[in-house]
Design brief:
Two copies of one chain form a homodimer. With 155 residues, the first copy, chain A, is α+β, with helices and mostly antiparallel strands. Chain A has helices at residues 3-18, 43-46, 53-65, 83-92, 103-108, 113-120, 136-148, and strands at 26-31, 34-40, 73-79, 96-101, 131-133. Helix content of chain A is 45%, strand content 19%. The relative contact order of chain A is 0.12.
């Protein structure tokens, strides 16, 4: 771990906030002791609800590496990731994550992270955004095709 | 609900799979009875671990609407969303979600959704990807600045 990378993530967060790009969140991704990608929250300026600092940095790092995997990388984020970003981290599979503020700190500052964590633990029909099953067989048939597909690339 | 929108989502999923763009997942977003955005998984072709069908469709729909919110929209996805996509859905706030296959169906077809759901319920230090707290005060100071910021745009 290296505090200077976290300090950089917090600086990105502060700059993004001051420039009204989005919320106060920043992220850097490090490989072999060097920053390979940076990001800050730009939800409101980009009209992109997925443009959290971690997602922005992960997408840039993958472009940089020409890979959909962040093997050998460390991610420094100014706040414990929300469920969306945590999911993205698991799909990208960096070696390690460092975070500064906690999810409770984020909730106290007015962000929905804790609410979303709680919603994820409910069954779909009990969530605040109604989630309804429809035409299941169409998709399970497709999954069977996927399982049998010979030239597929796993991810 | 309208089955033809789910059929379209599954068709996008099948086409993306056949074209080796990524896994067998598709999504459409509907407003006022019309499709305003479509997406299919393109993780492996785009080298983007966040390019799940729902994320792709949400980003396109927000560009289409010029908004970071999907108020008044319905999202049809060929599979119950993974935690990343579910998080994105909560941030985008559509009115309703329809899904075909379940997360268990996805797990049986070899996708990590269930593993990620389980990891999210663990405390950070117990997860398979190590997650370590560092320099918390730097970020909580920043959150205090955010709370006091007068010209901020909430999201």
């Amino acid at each position: 771990m290296d505090k200077k990378f976290m300090q950089r993530a917090v600086k990105l967060a502060r700059n993004g906030m001051k420039n009204n790009q989005g919320g106060p969140f920043g992220c850097v991704i490090v490989k072999n002791g060097k920053i390979i990608a940076e990001g800050n929250n730009s939800v409101t300026s980009e009209n992109d609800p997925t443009a959290h600092a971690e997602i922005v940095a992960i997408r840039k790092a993958c472009i940089e590496l020409g890979s959909f995997q962040l093997t050998g990388c460390e991610l420094y984020t100014s706040c414990e990731p929300c469920p969306m970003c945590l999911g993205a981290i698991y799909w990208a599979r960096p070696d390690r994550v460092y975070f500064a503020a906690t999810r409770n700190d984020a909730a106290e500052a007015g962000f929905d992270d804790e609410f979303i964590y709680n919603e994820l633990d409910l069954s779909p029909e009990k969530r605040k955004i109604p989630m309804i099953s429809l035409e299941r067989e169409l998709a399970t048939d497709l999954f069977s095709e996927w399982v049998c597909k010979e030239d597929k690339m796993d991810y």
